């Protein structure tokens, strides 16, 4: 994933980031889709939003939109990372030798 600071929205107590996990061909060039929007606040909490189906986080979302926004508010980033590591470990063990095993490596 590529992550970059949104400088025009960042302040001393507010860090705003955008991330790209996917890309699309525009003309002859591969362009990132900035499908992730992250705000790191002064108090250590983080708002994380991710959009699916090829939508940029800046899109104009209307009723019935297919962007499939995922949102999570995290106040212990380290704790959240440790929990995700444990989920990965359990998933990897569960799918060992089964269909889908390759996705957990």
Summed over residues and divided by their number, the pLDDT gives a mean of 90
Cα gyration radius (Å): 17 Å
Q: What series of H and E elements makes up the topology?
A: EEEEEEEH
Number of domains: 2
What's the helix count?
Answer: 1
The amount of helix comes to: 10-25%
> What oligomeric state do the depicted chains represent?
single chain
Strand content: 35-45%
- How many strands? 7
Pairing-aware structural class of the strands and helices?
Answer: alpha+beta
**Sheet with most strands: strand arrangement:** 1-2-5-6-7
Give the termini separation.
17 Å
Described by the principal axes of the CA atoms, the overall outline is globular
Low-confidence stretches: none
Write the layout of secondary structure elements.
Blueprint: E1 2-5, E2 14-20, E3 22-26, E4 29-33, E5 36-41, E6 46-50, E7 70-74, H1 77-95
Antiparallel strand pairs: 1-2, 2-5, 3-4, 5-6, 6-7
Highlighted features:
1 helix, two-stranded antiparallel ribbon, five-stranded antiparallel sheet, 105 residues, 7 strands, alpha+beta
Descriptive account of the structure:
The chain is α+β, with helices and mostly antiparallel strands and 105 residues long. A 5-stranded antiparallel beta sheet has the order 1-2-5-6-7, with no helix packed on it. A two-stranded antiparallel sheet has the order 3-4. The model has no long low-confidence stretch (mean pLDDT 90). The radius of gyration is 17 Å and the shape is globular. It is built from 1 helix and 7 strands. The chain has one helix at 77-95; strands at residues 2-5, 14-20, 22-26, 29-33, 36-41, 46-50, 70-74. The protein has 2 domains: 2-74, no CATH class; 77-105.
